[in-house]
Specification:
By secondary structure, the protein is α/β, with parallel strands linked by helices. It has one domain: 3-Layer(aba) Sandwich (Rossmann fold). The chain contains 8 helices and 5 strands, in the order βαβααβαβααβαα. Strands 2-3-1-4-5 form a 5-stranded parallel beta sheet, with helices on both faces. InterPro entries: CPT, P-loop_NTPase. It holds the Pfam family CPT.
């Protein structure tokens, strides 16, 4: 299960709720864990934000995503359930096709791709609660990095399910996802993404 959305959208809380509410083993192999394993001089690593600000890091980001998805595939093939909080985008200095490549890596494995949506105002409120300040740029505008995340992360917008964490608690999202896994239909988003033409 891949949970894709901008920072502070609630992905980690949903992943934790899925782990807590299931009798099965769910391994969390999300970007936060891979980012934490990356040496400081290569940060933000896999969490590189949209905008093409660090083209020097982009080849490493491609390899880190490849490694993360290989780990996901290995765990799945060994019979583990996997939940991943991801922040996919392709707004690098040049298109990197990371989402499409990742989908191809998981061909033949059952993948539910979930879009985690959250209005930018709610994300800013969560940022304020965590780090203080008012969260806005000068003049009361949304800071460019936050705006770019919210614009880029949901492209191409092909999902099996979408949840809005501004109206649903993490446990409610986990229940909706669990129902989708149990009742179907079979997920189709990742095969569709894998077959997208290169940009």
């Amino acid at each position: 299960m891949i949970l894709n959305g901008p920072p502070r959208s609630g992905k980690s809380s949903i992943a934790a709720a899925i782990q807590a509410r299931s009798d099965d083993v769910w391994m969390n192999l999300g970007v936060d864990h891979f980012k934490a394993m990356t040496p400081a001089r290569f940060q933000p690593g896999i969490g590189l934000r949209p905008g093409g600000e660090r083209p020097d890091l982009e080849p490493l980001v491609v390899r880190l995503y490849h490694a993360m998805y290989e780990a996901i595939a290995t765990h799945s093939r060994l019979g583990f359930n996997v939940v991943v909080d991801a922040v996919h985008h392709d707004a690098y200095s040049v298109p990197r096709q990371i989402l499409r490549t990742s989908a191809r890596q998981l061909r033949g494995l059952p993948v539910l791709f979930v879009g985690v949506r959250c209005p930018v105002e709610v994300a800013l409120e969560r940022r304020r609660a965590t780090w203080g300040g008012d969260g806005y740029a000068k003049g009361g505008t949304v800071p460019d990095p936050v705006r770019r995340w919210h614009e880029a992360v949901h492209r191409p917008g092909i999902y099996d399910l979408e949840v809005d964490t501004s109206v649903l608690r993490p446990e409610q999202c986990a229940d909706l996802i669990g129902s989708r896994l149990t009742d179907g239909p079979p997920p189709r988003a990742f095969p569709r993404i894998a077959d997208l033409p290169a940009e």
